[in-house]
Design goal:
This protein is of the alpha/beta class and 585 residues long. The chain folds into two domains: 333 residues, ABC transporter type 1, transmembrane domain (ABC transporter transmembrane region fold); 233 residues, Rossmann fold, CATH 3.40.50.300. The strands form three sheets. It has a six-stranded mixed beta sheet with strand order 6-9-10-3-11-12, sandwiched between helices. The protein has a four-stranded antiparallel beta sheet with strand order 2-1-4-5, covered by helices on one side. The protein has a two-stranded antiparallel sheet with strand order 7-8. A hairpin with a 2-residue loop joins strand 1 and strand 2. The longest helix is centred in the middle third of the chain and has 51 residues. The structure holds adenosine-5'-triphosphate. The site of adenosine-5'-triphosphate has 12 residues, from strand 2 and helix 14. It comes from Aureitalea marina.
Length: 585
């Protein structure tokens, strides 16, 4: 229990640092100034009542305070003091408020940036196996909710120190009365424990339901076209509606619980105050006069308790998001890609795969792969669908790490390199063409500067990728997006981008599968010019594209069954021969 309170405190303390204590101290100051201002009621009360014997004792302290400041205790000086105190209190409250805004902004900024920093180095295998709805929800909506958690937590803490300050003041004024009120009011906390537990439970359910809903939204957007053309958009729409209803149902429950917690506090406390006042005056024969100032403090405390209650409920309703964030941060840390500092400056001799094994979960995808890819040679991977070609390429490109075995770039294991320096030397074109909603120039240069040199490089690769047919002159500033280009056009944008990059190693995984034969031939001719100058890895089902490869590797069920030239494979591997015959080559 205490451990949990401490855990939350530690979480925010780690993110906010000692500024948290500054914020809290400012609040104690606000409370003390408020108390001091309110204490001026004592001399005022004394001025209006003649039988304030007990008040006199306490007000003597104030009188002493005034005389030490060289002031006389009269209506004017008391009121002047009160006005000044409240003015200073206003100023400090403003400081505290502004300080809180600053803390919060920096907290949310840090959490967001930190989240994406962790995301950038996330291992790709974990990414492909993740629930995308959860990932998306975590880096967007959940971070905002964690910001809300921080805000409400801070406000709760601040309210708590204020309540404490008022209670101390009430105790100083009238210990017996204050003790009675505190004990009775404390008993009502059991009720709140119950409500809080319920709220927390709902908050966790809410995160799960939001993850699920976000996942559905992603699928809806990604598959919009298919859902429409298949006439199933309404069916999917019903699932979405169900998701929305579930999220809102949970929100409603949390809202109602908050409402209960918020509204019952005041009537209960007023009841307690009245009951204790009756007992104190009627049974214990106390004086109403002195009770009054304690009541003012209690009432102040009550107002703050209400704020605290409100904020704590808000906190509980988003606490699920906080736990989710901690969990996902832990997962991100556990699944980050290991990468070392050696800068890759280009391939000098070969890439070597030694006894590579790789699986997704229990499914073994690659089984003991040994392979040497000599520098500046073209190697093609062929084999049935699902045989592991793309997975093998992804391992070579450093997207995936083998379960066992080693990948060496020029005698050094791949993990000894700074992976981004290696990947910046790899051109990777896949069947899923990547197009960003931006200008054509930015799409191809990936936001490089628009210098004369880059522009002429851009124009060259536009031609090399056979884009001239859909790209007019002065096209660099044209806006494109995945939606306003045809499949083949998107693929050519992807090819142009990798040519612009001028990589050492060019990987083409079904890179020309969406193109007509004529366009493919143009690009193929351009790629052929690289042969002997770059290391090229090709995955292709259309076997005509691999005829010119130096080495063809035949993969089957995660094993290399044969490798050699196209002709050698035709002679020695009947399965390959059959594949070629089926394509009428
Ligand atoms: N993210 C993943 N999670 C689980 N299994 C996966 C994942 N990606 C691929 N696989 C499995 O790994 C195996 C090899 O897939 P891979 O994409 O490497 O085959 P491929 O030879 O390139 O196939 P194709 O010619 O159809 O593109 C397949 O059985 C596939 O189901």
């Amino acid at each position: 229990m205490m451990e949990k309170y401490f855990k939350n405190f530690l979480f925010f303390y780690k993110a906010i640092g000692n500024r948290l204590f500054v914020a809290l101290t400012l609040n104690v100051l606000v409370g003390i100034l408020d108390g001091l201002g309110l204490a001026m009621f004592l001399p005022l009360l004394q001025m209006v009542s003649d039988n304030g014997g007990e008040i006199e004792g306490k007000s003597a302290v104030i009188e002493g305070m005034f005389s030490s400041m060289g002031l006389e205790l009269n209506l004017f000086s008391v009121l002047l003091f009160m006005v000044s105190i409240f003015a200073v209190k206003g100023l400090i409250k403003f400081l505290s408020f502004s300080f809180q805004v600053i803390i919060l902004q920096s907290f949310i900024r840090t959490v967001r940036i930190d989240m994406f920093d962790k995301f950038h180095v996330l291992n790709y295998k974990y990414f492909t196996q993740s629930d995308f709805g959860r990932l998306q929800n975590s880096v967007t909506a959940e971070v905002s909710r964690v910001g809300q958690a921080c805000r409400s937590y801070l406000k709760t803490m601040e309210a708590l120190v204020l309540v404490m300050t008022y209670l101390v003041l009430a105790f100083i004024t009238n210990p017996q009365f204050s003790l009675l009120v505190t004990v009775v009011a404390g008993l009502t906390n059991f009720l709140y424990k119950f409500i809080n537990r319920k709220t927390k439970g709902q908050s966790r359910i809410l995160v799960k339901r939001n993850d699920f809903f976000q996942g559905m939204v992603l699928e809806y957007l990604n598959n919009f076209k298919y859902l429409k053309v298949s006439g199933k958009i309404q069916v999917f729409g019903e699932r979405l509606t169900k998701g929305i209803k579930q999220v809102e149902e949970t929100n409603k429950r949390i809202g109602i619980l908050n409402g209960i917690a918020l509204t019952i506090r005041e009537p209960i406390l007023i009841f307690v105050l009245s009951a204790v006042m009756l007992v104190q005056v009627e049974v214990l024969g106390g004086s109403l006069g002195l009770i009054l100032l304690s009541i003012v403090f209690f009432y102040r405390a009550l107002q703050v308790v209400l704020v605290m209650q409100n904020q704590y409920n808000v906190f509980l309703s988003v606490e699920g998001s906080l736990r989710n964030l901690e969990q996902i941060q832990r997962e991100f840390d556990d699944h980050h890609q290991d990468t070392a500092g050696r800068t890759f400056t280009g391939l000098r001799s070969f890439i070597r795969l030694d006894g590579i094994r790789f699986g997704f979960g229990d499914r073994i995808v690659l089984n003991n792969i040994d392979l040497i890819i000599p520098e500046n040679k073209t190697m093609a991977f062929v084999g049935p669908s699902g045989s592991g070609k793309t997975t093998l390429i992804n391992l070579i490109a450093g997207l995936l790490s083998p379960d066992s075995g080693q990948i060496l770039y020029d005698h050094k294991p791949i993990y000894e390199y700074d992976i981004s320096s290696l990947q910046s030397r790899i051109g990777y074109i896949t069947q899923e063409a990547v197009v960003f909603s931006d200008t054509l120039f930015n799409n191809i240069s990936l936001w490089d500067k628009m210098t004369d040199e880059n522009l002429s490089r851009y124009e060259r690769v536009v031609q090399d990728a056979a884009m001239d047919e859909f790209v007019e002159t002065d096209s660099a500033e044209n806006q494109v997006s995945g939606l306003n280009l045809s499949g083949g056009q998107r693929q050519r944008v992807s090819i142009a981008r990798e040519l612009f990059k001028e990589p050492d190693i060019l990987i083409m995984d079904e890179a020309t599968s969406s193109l007509d034969s004529a366009t493919e031939a143009v690009i193929q001719r351009r790629i052929n010019e690289f042969s002997g100058k770059k290391t090229i890895l090709i995955v292709a089902h259309r076997l005509s594209t691999v005829k010119k490869a130096d080495i063809v590797v035949y993969l089957n069920a995660g094993n290399i069954e044969a490798q050699g030239t196209y002709e050698e494979l035709m002679d020695t591997v009947p399965k390959f021969q059959k594949m070629v015959e089926l394509q009428n080559l």
